[in-house]
């Protein structure tokens, strides 16, 4: 096996087709963030932790995520790459850490796809119930059944995977129309809920000091960071946009849109629903919200929006993950199948299909958790810790790469170095505290979303698998990434100043 860098001859380097603009990037990033799903499901889960302080926790979580977004934007400006964090962390910090960022992002997204598969199936079954269909072939349909929702969601996952194969432009157009419908429904129902809700508005909703405990604050923040997760999907298609700066614009526009939607949704939910109703309806929260505001068939519109969000989120999860694995395969840290570009569609078609297959396999394995709500809570907690780690390392890579700006321009240095470091520190402390609280919350291991050791073991297994995969890439594949991925680009600050 040779140690020659992969694709040292430029024509041999796999290239993706450039066909996207800033609107397409927004559609992909917004679909990946899935505001409707986060509002419909995430708000109820988070309310079960922080009570009636959803607006406060959403605003508080936005601050470090905004610092992370700034880091992504600056790094993308000087080195646009489909691998983004994997490449930037590997170059500026350490290749092992860079590989870990790429790996855990892939594993976390596959886990997210598995749970979104069940959410999609749940929304479809709820819609069938609203249409008067409560059984099929003698089987009673249950939107809370992990088995039923997963099997139905798998059919949808297959369809959106095939759509993603045929071209990212086609997928982005589909996601744009789905988003338009979702946001019109969200704005209409949430606006109406804010005006007519029976529960009085209170400024205490925006007070984070009213959250019951430090553990509740930490877990609530992590759940909220998870809600913002996905804005960086805009950067995974940076090699497919006509201007790499459009990827940065799309990511920031998406993030600002998300915080406004989350604030609107959290205030509306708390105006319409009591704390017990918020925390007690889990995956069916948005449907319950709609039923409190309107009668059928209008009450079904939020549920249709949730279904559209879940479908778009499935597709948006497949697309950036396939691009991340494309970049890793290009560096020979993963096998060659992931960097095969379809001559017909200009996409990593084989890798996209494999991502869908892996997500389907994980969704099937999740059937060991009997209830959909349990599956959601277990997945969100695990992925939240992983997302916090990945974001923090990328922010630190930006701080290291642009550290020269502290001497050259202190204002730029504050934005490019200090803000990312503070954001990274906040997320690392948050994740560390939550891990400690999980560890000390029990004295035995049990496969349950209420068991701290299980919640801690899940992200640890994700990280451990990354170490094994990195060792294989370095010593078996002999990837040049582990030799050339280190070091700081000394020209980065000057390049930044020229844009």
Structure description:
The chain has 499 residues and is mainly α. Helices cover 71% and strands 1% of the residues. Strands 1-2 form a two-stranded antiparallel sheet. Strand 1 (135-136) and strand 2 form a beta hairpin. Helix 5 runs antiparallel to helix 15 and helix 5 (95-130) crosses helix 18. The longest helix is centred in the first third of the chain and has 36 residues, at 95-130. The radius of gyration is 22 Å and the shape is globular.
In short:
The two termini are 41 Å apart.
How far apart are the termini? 41 Å
| Low-confidence sequence ranges | 1-11, 486-499
The main pleated sheet reads as: 2 strands, antiparallel
Biggest sheet: strands side by side, in what order?
Answer: 1-2
- Rg result: 22 Å
Question: For the record, what CATH class applies?
Answer: Mainly Alpha
Whole-number average pLDDT?
A: 83
Tell me the domain tally: 1
Write down the CATH topology: Amino acid/polyamine transporter I
Assign the structural class, choosing from mainly alpha, mainly beta, alpha/beta, alpha+beta, or little secondary structure. Answer: mainly alpha
Q: Superfamily at the CATH H level? A: Amino acid/polyamine transporter I
What overall form do the CA principal axes indicate?
Answer: globular
CATH architecture: Up-down Bundle
What pattern of helices and strands is seen along the backbone?
HHHHHEEHHHHHHHHHHHHHHH
Helical proportion, percent range: over 70%
> Would you count the extended β strands for me?
2
How much β-strand is present in the residues?
under 5%
Helical run tally:
20
């Amino acid at each position: 096996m040779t140690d020659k860098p992969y694709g040292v001859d430029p024509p041999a380097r796999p290239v993706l087709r450039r066909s996207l603009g800033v609107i397409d990037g927004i559609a992909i990033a917004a679909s990946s963030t899935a505001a409707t799903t986060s509002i419909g499901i995430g708000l109820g889960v988070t309310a079960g932790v922080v009570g009636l302080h959803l607006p406060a926790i959403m605003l508080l979580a936005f601050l470090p995520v905004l610092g992370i977004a700034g880091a992504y934007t600056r790094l993308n400006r000087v080195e646009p790459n489909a691998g983004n964090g994997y490449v930037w962390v590997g170059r500026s910090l350490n290749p092992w850490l860079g590989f870990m960022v790429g790996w855990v992002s892939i594993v976390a997204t596959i886990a997210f796809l598995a749970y979104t598969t069940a959410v999609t199936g749940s929304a479809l079954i709820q819609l069938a119930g609203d249409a008067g269909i409560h059984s099929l072939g003698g089987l009673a349909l249950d939107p809370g059944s992990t088995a039923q929702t997963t099997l139905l969601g798998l059919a949808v996952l297959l369809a959106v995977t095939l759509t993603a194969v045929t071209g990212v432009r086609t997928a982005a157009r589909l996601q744009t129309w789905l988003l338009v419908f979702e946001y019109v429904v969200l704005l209409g129902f949430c606006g109406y809920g804010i005006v007519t809700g029976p529960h009085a508005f209170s400024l205490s909703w925006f007070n984070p000091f009213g959250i019951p405990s430090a553990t509740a604050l930490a877990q609530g923040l992590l759940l909220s960071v998870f809600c913002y997760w996905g804005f960086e999907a805009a950067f995974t298609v940076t090699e497919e946009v006509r201007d790499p700066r459009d990827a940065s614009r799309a990511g920031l526009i998406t993030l600002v849109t998300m915080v406004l939607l989350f604030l609107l949704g959290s205030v509306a939910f708390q105006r319409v629903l009591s704390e017990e109703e918020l925390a007690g309806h889990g995956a069916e929260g948005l449907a319950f919200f709609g039923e409190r505001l309107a009668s059928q068939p209008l009450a079904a519109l939020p549920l249709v929006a949730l279904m559209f969000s879940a479908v778009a989120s499935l597709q948006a999860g497949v697309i950036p993950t396939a691009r991340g694995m494309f970049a890793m395969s290009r560096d020979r840290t993963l096998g060659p199948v992931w960097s095969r570009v379809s001559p017909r569609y200009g996409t990593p078609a084989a890798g996209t299909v494999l991502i869908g297959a892996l997500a389907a396999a994980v969704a099937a394995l999740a059937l060991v958790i009997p209830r959909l709500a349990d599956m959601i809570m277990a997945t969100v907690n695990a992925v939240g810790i992983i997302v916090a780690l990945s974001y923090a390392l990328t922010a630190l890579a930006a701080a290291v790469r642009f550290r020269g700006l502290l001497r050259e321009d202190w204002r730029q240095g504050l934005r490019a170095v200090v803000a990312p470091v503070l954001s990274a520190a906040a997320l690392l402390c948050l994740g560390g505290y939550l891990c400690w609280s999980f560890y000390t919350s029990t004295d035995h291991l049990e496969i349950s979303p209420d068991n701290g050791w299980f919640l801690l073991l899940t992200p640890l297994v994700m990280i451990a698998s990354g170490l094994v995969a990195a060792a294989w890439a370095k010593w078996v594949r002999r990837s040049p990434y582990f030799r050339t991925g280190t070091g700081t680009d000394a020209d980065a600050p000057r390049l930044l100043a020229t844009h």
